[in-house]
Design brief:
CATH architecture: Orthogonal Bundle
Order of helices and strands: HHHHH
Radius of gyration: 13 Å
Number of domains: 1
Distance between the termini: 26 Å
CATH class: Mainly Alpha
Structural class: mainly alpha
Helix content: 40-55%
Number of strands: 0
CATH superfamily: Transferase(Phosphotransferase) domain 1
Strand content: under 5%
CATH topology: Transferase(Phosphotransferase), domain 1
């Protein structure tokens, strides 16, 4: 069974920032943002911790094989410091 870590990244961003990471008033522009995703072009508020930003960036990677996997998620410092 495979879990889509991309969705976890989107959800984490929405919960922490309060809006979708690729939101645009135009659906077409939203889709463009998703198709051209790069962790370096995602905007993060300065109030977000470095651990949170790193966690989300490692999940919102276009190539699935390069994304953080479930084991990596559980070991990431962003989640481990919450325990």
């Amino acid at each position: 069974m495979s879990v889509d870590m991309w969705c976890l990244g989107v959800l984490a961003y929405e919960l922490l920032v309060g809006k979708a990471p690729f939101y645009h008033i135009s659906r077409k522009e939203t889709m463009k943002k998703i198709m051209n995703v790069s962790p370096s072009n995602i905007e993060f508020p300065s109030s977000l911790s470095k651990k949170a930003v790193d966690f989300i960036k490692k999940l919102l990677v276009k190539q699935p094989e390069e994304r953080l996997n479930a084991q990596g998620v559980l070991k990431h410092p962003f989640l481990s410091h919450l325990a």
